Amino acid sequence: MDYQIFKSDSRGGANHGWLNTRHSYSFANYYDPNRIHFGALRVVNDDIITGGMGFGKHPHDNMEIITIPMKGGISHQDSIGNGSIIESGDVQMMSAGTGVFHSEMNAYENQEGHFFQIWIIPNKQNVEPRYQQISVREVAKENELYQVLSPNPDDQGVWVYQDAWIFLGNYTEDKEETYKVQKEGNGVFFMVVEGEVEFEGNKLDRRDVIEITNTNEFSFKVSKNSRLMLIEVPMNF
């Protein structure tokens, strides 16, 4: 097994007043030639948006775009006819394919919205744009990982054009976990969203990340009151 640890303060980003954002990989005005992507994982942005503010209509193509709200709600509108509010407990996925315009605004005037936006490079180009939004409240489990994204339309969670998986975890007690890689050769982006994790003798705190490759499984110890996000992707990019 190979792994590399990135502390939360090593991320790029900026505070624009209405938007306080941190980037795990090069994005917008943040550029690090050593942090362009992790395999097919191109973007992991950690965004806090002031009430009523957000991103006006803008284009995307040939990218799988996933939004996972942590707090508040995001109002989504797009050029393929979708309009909705994505709340904490929901997961949204958009295959941009041949091209789509969309906007993302804080749905509430009087509270901050906090969400992760994740971009995954697809394994199919120029597909028809597609939108999917689900609630994961019914499948969310305490003290174990649960799947919210996969390559399979019939599987739990949303699906993408890529051999990729996302698992979340909410822990109210200390627990030792083992994650089994879903597809041989894939790597795993592992973020401590909240709380504390011990991995291979290393203490990891809020928003710290491990990039793990060349293994079929790995174990870690989760402290109570912790939240995790694991994104598994192919590495041949």
Automatic annotation (TrEMBL):
Family to which this protein belongs: Belongs to the pirin family.
InterPro entries linked: Pirin, Pirin_N_dom, Quercetinase_C, RmlC-like_jellyroll, RmlC_Cupin_sf
Biological source species: Algoriella xinjiangensis
Domain Pirin N-terminal: 14-120
Protein name according to UniProt: Pirin N-terminal domain-containing protein
Residues reported to bind Fe cation: 58, 60, 102, 104
Domain Quercetin 2,3-dioxygenase C-terminal cupin span(s) in chain numbering: 148-233
Pfam families noted in UniProt: Pirin, Pirin_C_2
CDD domains to which the protein is assigned, alphabetical: cupin_Yhhw_N
Cofactor: Fe cation
Gene Ontology MF annotations: metal ion binding
Gene3D superfamilies: Jelly Rolls
Cofactor details (free text): Binds 1 Fe cation per subunit.
Keywords, alphabetical: Iron, Metal-binding
Superkingdom assignment: Bacteria
